[in-house]
Every structure is written in C-alpha cells, then in structure tokens.
Amino acid sequence: MQYDALIIGGGHNGLVCAFYLAKAGMKVRIVERRDVVGGAAVTEEFHPGFRNSVASYTVSLLQPKVIEDMRLADYGYRAIERPLSNFLPIDDRQYLKVSGSLKKAQAEFGKFSEKDAAALPAYDAMLDGVADILRDLALRSPPGEGSGLGGVIDALRQGRMLQRLSVERQRDLLNLFTRSAREFLESWFESDPVKALFGFDAVVGNYASPDTPGSAYVLLHHVFGEVNGKKGAWGHSVGGMGAITQAMAAACRDAGVEISLERPVECVLLDGDRAAAVRLTSGEEIAAQRIIANVGPKLLFGKLIDNSALPDDFKRRMQDYKTGSGTFRMNVALSSLPRFTCLPEEGEHHGSGIIMAPSLDYMDAAFVDARQHGWSHRPIVEMLIPSTIDDSLAPKGAHVASLFCQQFDPEYAWDDASEKSAVESIFDVIETYAPGFRGTVLGKQILSPRGLEEKFGLAGGDIFHGRMSLDQLWAARPILGHGGYRGPIKGLYMCGSGTHPGGGVTGAPGHNCAQAVLADRNIASRLFG
Fold first, then answer.
1. Is 337 inside a domain boundary?
2. Would the pTM of this model clear 0.90, i.e. be above it?
3. Is residue 488 part of a domain?
4. Which end of the chain lies in a sparser environment, N or C, as judged by fewer CB atoms within 10 Å?
5. Which domain CATH number covers 505?
C-alpha cells in the first residue's frame, strides 16, 4: 500500500500536520519509535503513584487556531492559568512575586526600584507590540526553494507586516534580534531582581550567557503565547502535557490517520532523486508519495538520509547547524511542598514558575562554569509544582515538581556519575532557598542532555531541535533556501521544531508544513490533472 504522506515521528507537530492532511482527503500514516505518541510532550508515571509531564512541562505557545481546528477541548484538553506568573526568591527575606496584574507587578517592582515600576507599562507595551508581529508570522510559511510565486507573494506580505510597526518598534525589534539580554534589559531596568526575572527567559533552552549577543530574542520567543485567550500567560495542561498530544492523536484517528507505535525508522529510501519510502529497523519498507520528517534536522540529515544524496553546500551547512540547549530536566516526587525561607507557608507562589537565579551575573557565572567543567555547580533552576493545581498527578498530600535546569554542556561526556553529581548541584541550589528539600524527595527521574537525546531523539538534548539564533530563524530555519518546510530532496518535507517558528509546543510547524504540502499538491493537480 502506498500512502499519500508518511510522517516520521508522532510528536505534537507530526500529529498536527497529519490532521490537516487527513482532513484534506489524504491517506496519512505516522510511524513513531516509542510506545506512545507525543514526542517530548508526554505524561508518564515516573515513581509509583506519581505522574508528570516528562520533558515539555508547561503550556502557552500552543496555537489557538490549532486548538480550535482540531477541537482539542472535545477530546479532553483543558488548560489552567498559573495563579502567579513567576516567583523569584532572592535571599532569606526578599522575593519578587509577579502575577498577570500590572498594578500588582508594579507594586512588587517598587520594592526594589520605583524607576523599574514606572518603566514596566512601557516595557510591556513594547513587548506586546513586537510579539503581535511574531504571533502573526508564526502561522505563515517563510520563503524557501520550491515555494513558487505564492511563496514570494506571501514573503512580501510578511515584510509589509514588519513595516506596519512604528519606527520605534522596528528599533526595538532590531535590538531584540541583535543585542544580548543584559544590554537590552539594562536599557529598561536597573534592579538586579527585575532584570533576573525577565532575563531568565533569555537563557531557557539557550546554552548561552545573558551577555551573549542575540540572547535577547529568546526572551521574546517565550512571551508571544497565550492561555485561554490571555496573551503572554502561562498555564498547566490538566493531566500534563500528554493530555494535549493524546487529544491530538484522538483527533487524528477520527480524521482517518493511521498511527503506528514502536516503529523506529532506519532510513529514508530514494527512488532516483525523490524520497519514496522509509525502511524501519525491522526491515519493513513503507512507500508514500511524500515523506514528512517530524524529527530534528541533525537526526534527519545526519542519520536517516544517505549523505551522498544531499547537495554539497547543504551538507556543509548542515554539519554546522547548531544544536544543544544546555538543559537538564528532572521530575521529582515530593512528600510535601518545599518551604522557602523568604515565604515559608503554602501559597500561590507554589503554583507559579519558581526561578532560582537571582541576577544576570549569577546566570553568566553559571554559563562560564558549565563551559569550564561540563555543568554549572550553581545552575539556573526553575521549579514548577503542577500538583498544586492538578491533583491527578500525585497522591493526596504529596506533590510532583518539574525541575527545568540550565547550563549543562550538551557536548560533555555525560555518564551515570556525572549525572548524579549534577543532580546534587541542582539540589544544592534548591536547598539555598528551601532548606530541607532533599528530605522530601521520594523519587526522581533524571534527563541530562544525554537522557533527552536517548529518550526523545533530541540531538544534543536540544529541546528546540536547533539553536534559536538569528542565523537559524525564519527563512534560515534550518537552512536558508529550505525554510519553507521543503527538504533538498523532492518529496521530502520537514514539520518539526527545527523549522519556523521554532521550539515549544506550538503546533505551528506542523500546521505550516501541511499547508506547504497541500499547496504543492494543488499545483501538481493543476499541471498534471
């Protein structure tokens, strides 16, 4: 049997792409190497009685159009906004607590700087204005080889969207793309806690210092989402992130998509100059008119496709494609909530993103330490405790915590001993702010860069499938000329986070790739009947 489209990888973007193609009448099959769909957006039991989102752990960037088109709410998807956006413990007495209320946020900022409190409304307006452009661009295909006249026209439209920004906003956008997070934030704020609160977003999944040029853009990438229609908000998917992908899988099956689990792909097979099939590790071959890869570019072009079939310049540039987000991910089963010295009693701060990195200097030192020793001995730690708002994840009275930790060298030779030492460094940071934390740990799941690569196929443990830098964004993601979701081989497409608009649980690459496939099908139909 030959399929109209075969998708490698059942992560969320593969599911989204499959849904749109199936709804357009195509016969679609997904082959997934694991025993569950969802890619890095899955919920699993990691300790008896304790479940959590294993890798991806929070929701905001998922496109409202995708939610609506796939009718995810009908399949059980529900998101709850965090009671607080972020909680930043600073020392034994001081902390910064930020909600979605501008007035409350200004009051918090005012504890450290009246100037920063006064600057916040203009800063928010600036970010929101620039983020609106990114929201509009997220569901549009960048120009690329093979996109035809329609692609050129759409690229011109996208350029005009940028021109609609005032000159002031265009300057802000230029600064965000080119400046370091420190330079950008210091042009707005003066107090260390405020700059740390915003600067954290610039190093999440970005193995870099806040002093690295271009790091300001990653800050922006994390603010253009929304939860339940509230722009810039972050939330929790009830049942964990796996509830999203299970809802997507149900929508796909109802649309006629065939999903095959435990079917790892060995390679993509070519018929002349065209991608025509895949061979599974079992030896089975599956033919399709189109092969769509929902795996990272490094894996696709480094392992799944015969190197000799790729153009020389493409091969050279793909070898230089940068991956490795410097992320260490842990899921922890807790007997009780952590007691922060600065705010010890149970409260809304336990339901927020808890950032343990009190200044940009701290973040820079963590990066330098990781470059020298493989991992930072004082890493950047974010803790979420989703069981405070979702009691389905842990036994009554107990909790689960997601630890999202930065500054762990993806190229370090990770082994069991170094992972164990890294865990102790993470726990040391938490103990600084919440003494006694270690004594509440009942069990843990450890995913170093090595673990993320082995479990989810993320090259270098890169949660974004590739560095989010100016040279690897928009039409240059993954490589200039192939930013329109079409690979360098006929019949080969890409729909993962290594394409525009990049990482996070957005569904946008899957949506956009499907539109590219359908556009090509329509052109072929007009030309050849």
1. no
2. yes
3. yes
4. C
5. 3.50.50.60
